[in-house]
Amino acid sequence: MRCQLGQEVGYSIRFEDVTSSKTRIKFLTDGLLLREALVDPLLSRYSVVMVDEAHERSLSSDILLGLLKKVRKRRSELRIIISSATLDAENFLQFFSDDPGETSNGEEKRETGRIVSLEGRMHPVDIHYLIEPTSDYVERAVQTIFDIHTKEPAGDILLFLTGREEIETAIDLIESQLPDLPPKSQTLQPLPLYAGLPTEKQVYVFEPAAENTRKVVISTNIAEASITMDGIVYVIDSGYVKLRAYNPTTGIETLTAVPVSKASATQRAGRAGRTKPGKCYRLYTESAHESLDEATVPEIQRSNLAPVILQLKDLGIDNIARFPYITSPPSQLVVRALELLYSLSALDDYARLTKPLGTRMAELPLTPELGKALLQASLFDCLSEMLSIAAMLTLQGNVWITHDGSKKLQEGARRKFAAEEGDHITLLNVYQAFVTKGKKEAKWCRDNYLNFKELSRAVSTRNQLRKHLERFGIDVSESLSGSDVRRAGGADKAEKIQRCLTTGFFAHAARMMADGSFKTVDGGTTLWAHPSSLLFNRKADWVIFNEVIETGNKAFIRDITKIEKDWLTEYAPEYYNVKK
């Protein structure tokens, strides 16, 4: 529309709003539209809502579609467009059709909607499979890249891997083999693409390759449907994707690499035929492809539902069992979420939102655990500090960067900020040092191996969270002195923060074993400190942690802080009982 961004066309994402009173077309995430519904349940500002990529069946988009179905009963003029490349359109149309028996007074049933098919131009894509399975798909992928590069005509390559660590490994492998290419031959330019990558690095994947260079984009499933890059002719599919999986028994949500579905494999292959005929190399056998699931399990059937139930309750939907879900969540996930919210004091004995705590937790754009810790912070006299920690924990990208390939120097830089209590207070030390020294000069960040862009984002996120608290009527007078917590407030302040974190993260508790691993409280799950954590190879007794990531056959915990065992029963008596 050739207007300035934020005028007639704008966007809104978590912690960033680029819109104005003139905005007519607004791009926003499904999660953010749900948040807007908390304030305006009928979404009265909008006359058309378009939900894109609905086939991905994310938790937020499924709940949003259920909400739109309810809104439509009150606002018949609201236009809803659901779009996707591989959509099971009949199911969605059926979902929005008026429920039987809903027309009274013998009125004619109005047409719910219609299916419109837009034929895209797809060039043919040749599919190649491995004859024998591979034991290491990252190595095999790099080998395939060099095979394509030396034997196939011009065209860029897109490789699908599961996450940042694999992507970085692949790039290292490619760069180590570049000198072996014949002199004067075309070179390769490997480019990473994943959600936490700084925006300025993401844009490289869309730019045409330099002269005499073949671009190799190495991406997570973000490139499966969400974005399109010109010039891709060859796709290499590892056959895996990282999905969230929540175990209602242990209460732990993991990110685990699992085989893709047939629908995803088809989407990936299609990326090779956008501009001309292409080739897709699947790093698995044809028989393995036949055994894949038809479609990915919707997020609502494998996620921690606590945040969603909290939002539904805040929307006034008390009977969550009768909410119109496209696919109903399993009962044990719902029960577990209700238990967790009850033990966090967000729900009362009748499963109603508590006031003010429950409603405030629902309105904060944070996980229920982090929201609870932040809202309890004034009781522990560490609100300033918890605001900074919460902002640091919401960052998508990495706070630490490596440059000049100097791991040793980076480790030394990290030690400057290290707090013996663990990662949360270390992140706080980083934030406070950045605000006092690094905000004005990017060089300070570079010298300390810190990500200037991410830390600047943490500052604006903290301001947004602060505004939320002020809106709740919470006194947010700042009381920070000095850049290091221990020096500023001594061990006393550090302990207050540890206790405060325990009020939110008590369900994520573990005890260290003699071999350096951790065991969950019920003793059922073995966890390891993530190499990025300060408590990697360090001694601790009891800890709480922010998240679990599964890599290979090990579960790693990240963002870890030491606590005392007694705090668990003190702050979560409904959750933990001590056997006498």
From TrEMBL:
Keywords: ATP-binding, Helicase, Hydrolase, Nucleotide-binding. It comes from the Eukaryota. One of its GO terms (molecular function) is RNA helicase activity. Pfam families: HA2_C, Helicase_C, OB_NTP_bind, WHD_HA2. GO terms for cellular component: catalytic step 2 spliceosome. InterPro entries: DEAD-box_helicase_OB_fold, DNA/RNA_helicase_DEAH_CS, HA2_WH, Helicase-assoc_dom, Helicase_ATP-bd, Helicase_C-like, P-loop_NTPase. Residues 141-316 form the Helicase C-terminal domain. Residues 1-105 form the Helicase ATP-binding domain. Its EC number is 3.6.4.13. SUPFAM superfamilies: P-loop containing nucleoside triphosphate hydrolases (SSF52540). It is an enzyme of class 3 (hydrolase). This is RNA helicase. It comes from Zopfia rhizophila CBS 207.26.
